[in-house]
Design a protein that fits this description.
Elements: E1 3-8, H1 18-34, E2 38-41, H2 54-64, E3 70-72, H3 76-79, H4 93-103, E4 108-112, E5 115-119, H5 130-144, E6 150-154, H6 176-188, E7 193-196, E8 203-208, E9 211-215, E10 238-243, E11 249-254, H7 268-271
Parallel strand pairs: 1-2, 2-3, 5-6, 6-7, 7-9
Antiparallel strand pairs: 1-10, 4-5, 8-9, 10-11
Length: 279
């Protein structure tokens, strides 16, 4: 029997935004009914955790309320964004400490039949925090000691938008320098897939440049086509990964009935006005 993981992402939970909490409760009811073996949250659990711990504590309570086994890694709205991108809420030691006070470690390792699951904090990878260097050491050891298990990585940001050799510093993917370091490790210890969120679009890249990237849709809201180029499915939902002990797996996107497709571009009071993309 396959080990079933529900990968959820981008719930943006906050007591100040009940519309997102309602979407989460729709998802929670669905998950309680379907009973996955494990829920993995790939970040932006909270709406404004990067500005203070209140939303992180609120989000932790909602995750505990699932009544299911779960793990989580942070997103940019939990611990701040890559400092190289600028902005007032860069990932730093204080924001990381707030996450750890509310959620515990910002990475994880879990072995299940035939598989090793590794969760990474992609927001600190390009910082000079000691935790960033330690995480790469932990990743290298986790890959090297998998002992024949298939490996799946779970993280907030995808490795790239289109190609692994992208050099631009942009909002959506892992930045080039930490991406290169990850790819060096993955060349020695191949992974079955890399599962991520952040883009608010579902997309299964297939095996591209040797790595299968699977993007989860958001739960809280979509970014409308006026504000974000469409490269996947923006319908709210989650990804179910069915992992077989022999290394086979199937991944599919599920859209629970009742999730409301809020367009963040029409809610400027939450994250400010969105800028239209070029035609």
């Amino acid at each position: 029997m396959a080990f079933r993981i529900a990968q959820i992402s981008d719930t943006h939970l906050s007591a100040a935004h009940p519309e997102f909490s309602v979407n989460f409760e729709v998802l929670a009811a669905h998950l309680r009914a379907t009973r996955p073996d494990l829920v993995i949250h790939t970040g932006d659990v909270s709406a404004h955790g990067e500005t203070g711990p209140e939303d992180l504590r609120y989000a932790r309570g909602r995750m505990d309320g699932l009544g299911l086994d779960w793990l989580a890694v942070p997103g940019n709205h939990d611990v701040g964004n890559d400092p190289a991108l600028g902005g007032a809420t860069a990932a730093d030691a204080t924001r990381l400490a707030h996450w750890r006070e509310a959620f515990g470690p910002d990475r994880f390792l879990r072995d299940v039949p035939g598989w090793r699951l590794i969760g990474l904090d992609t927001l600190i990878m390009a910082t000079d925090l000691p935790e960033a260097a330690a995480q790469f050491d932990v990743l290298e050891a986790a890959l090297a000691t998998a002992g024949g298990r298939s490996i799946a990585l779970f993280q907030h940001k995808p490795l790239c938008e289109e190609r692994m050799d992208e050099t631009a510093l942009t909002y959506w993917p892992v930045l080039p320098a930490p991406r290169r370091r990850m790819l060096e490790l993955l060349a020695r210890h191949p992974v079955a897939f890399v599962a991520s969120g952040h883009v608010h679009q579902a997309r299964d890249r297939g095996v591209s440049e040797g790595i299968r990237q699977i993007w989860a849709p958001a739960v809280a809201f979509l970014v409308g086509d006026t504000w974000q180029r469409r490269i996947g499915d923006k319908t709210p939902g989650y990804v179910e990964h069915a992992l077989h002990a022999d290394g086979r797996f199937e991944s599919r996107v599920i859209h629970p009935e009742g999730l409301v497709p809020h367009d963040i571009g029409l809610l400027p009071e939450i994250y400010g006005p969105q800028q239209p993309v070029a035609a």
